[in-house]
Amino acid sequence: MDEAALNAITDTDALRALVREQMARIAPQQEVIVQRELTIARRDHEIACKTAKIDKLTHELARLRRVQFSARSERMNPVQRELFDEAMAADIAAVEAELEALQDCASAPSARPPRAKPVSRPLSPELPREITVHTPEQCDCATCGTALTRNGTHASEKLAVKPPVFFVRRDEYPQRACPQCKTTVAEPVAPALIDGGQTAPGLLAQAVIQKYADHLPLYRQEAIFARHGITLSRSTLAEWLGHVGRRLQPLVDALRAKLLTVEVLHADEPLVAQLDPGAGKTKRAYLFAYAGHGGPSGASAGGAGAARRPDPPPIVIFDYCPTRAGRHAADFLGPWQGALMVDDHGGYEALFAHGITELGCWAHARRKFFDAHQAGYEGAGRRAAAIMSLFVTAKVNGIDPHARLSDVLTRLPTTKDRDIECLLPLA
Questions:
Q1: Strand residues in 233-280 grouped as ranges (E)
Q2: Which of 37, 167, 253, 405 is deepest in the core (most CB within 10 A)?
Q3: Cα–Cα distance for residue pair 44/306, rounded to 1 Å
Q4: Same domain, 267 and 415
């Protein structure tokens, strides 16, 4: 209705009816406007809250990164710093993920910059695969009813893990008897590493690896076993470690004898902490470390005209000592004469005065050796040094310590002393 037609109306009732009609039309529109205003206010409030949270997370992320790379963390003990670094890295990753999610929600879809698709490294082909085939239930085309044919396969791989599986290994020895001669024939029972024990070599290797390679205390191992329904006390685990350490000592002695045939050795004496039960605190001990290659090198063997032989495998030996005195190095090296590379520790001076050649290091940096577990007496320290010597030597030769130790503990009871070198962890 235009303005002229509206001015021509003189009937009051007609005007009232027209107003009511317009009010009826306007009321729904006003309701829509009110709802939109409430929605806008609610979104403004959400944006304000998310913006405040983004600012808080940004500040927290900056603080974590500042703490992670601050000079204070550099002054911390490296082993302690690793514990904090792991937790801090997890915190930073969590904050970054939450911050990214909030920023995605706060920004409009058109304003979001295109994100690069993350590139994942392929999983190792040596890992075993468990393949699950997800075949479509539909066999015919939903449009025309034609039978569907295979047109390739799309595959996705995810790294998975299974918890340790405990089982009982039962060895049976059937007996055969001669009814005429009254004799019985049976296979002899294989000797065990622990007489009368119910522990297979694989479980012994697992406990030893977790203790000396993964630095997992026995009380934690006890809790892990209990979580899987296996009751193993700390005293039992400690007895296992004692038996294994004693039985592995001949291998360490053979490894030391092979190490002392080389011409050049590297030595260092890292400080370790040893529990002192009587004093209720820790005391200082030292883990002398000697490294070299187990035999004369291919270049020096046989002269210049001889064919070059492969380089001998590396060997690392740890020697637990209660002090840093030079006599400990003299006792370990014995009559050995060669070149010894060390730092500026004065304890080696007596060795250099009796025929051993000193090799100085221009830029000596203390290497990270495996830290000995805190022990309550020197025997435990020596056992740790012996077992770690085998572990580290296996590692530098590219050998899996767990598989190797399981094999050694299986073969050791039947191996003659003259054949002990066949068990050494050398490539």
A1: 264-268, 271-276
A2: 405
A3: 84
A4: yes
Q: What are the backbone angles phi and psi of residue 395, rounded to the nearest 5°?
A: -65, -45
Q: Is the pTM of this model over 0.70?
A: no
Q: Residue 81 has what pLDDT?
A: 54
Give me the residues paired with residue 185 across strands: 176
* Among 319, 253, 333, CA closest to 289: 319
Residue 387 lies in a domain: yes
Q: Which residues pair with 319 in a beta bridge?
A: 288
- Say how far apart CA 314 and CA 384 lie, in whole Å: 20
Q: How much is the pLDDT for 104?
A: 66
Is residue 219 in some structural domain? yes
Q: Quick one: 83 and 212 in the same domain?
A: no
In single-letter form, the type of residue at position 47 comes to I
100: its two tokens: 């990214």
Domain with 83 in it: 15-108
Tokens of 317: 């030996």
The pLDDT value given to residue 427: 66
**Residue 240 structure tokens:** 């296992």
Predicted confidence (pLDDT) per residue in 58-112, tens digit? 877 777 777 666 654 444 555 555 555 555 566 666 667 777 777 666 555 445 5
Residue 99 shares a structural domain with residue 229: no
| CA distances from residue 185 to 84, 174, 181, 228, 346 in whole angstroms, order as listed | 62, 9, 11, 40, 66
Asked if residue 204 lies in contact with residue 244, where contact means CB atoms within 8 angstroms, the answer is: yes
- Give the CA count within 13 Å in the CB-facing half-sphere of 212: 30
Q: Which residues of the chain have pLDDT under 50?
A: 72-75, 109-110, 297-301, 303-305, 363-376
Whether 40 maps to a domain, the answer reads yes
Q: 296 in a domain, yes or no?
A: yes
Closest CA to 217 of 22, 371, 2: 371
Question: For residues 284 and 288, what is the distance between their CA atoms, to the nearest angstrom?
Answer: 13
Give the CA distances from residue 293 to residues 263, 382, 427, in Å, rounded to whole numbers and listed in that order. Answer: 9, 23, 12
The tally of domains found in the chain comes to 2
3-state secondary structure of 173: coil
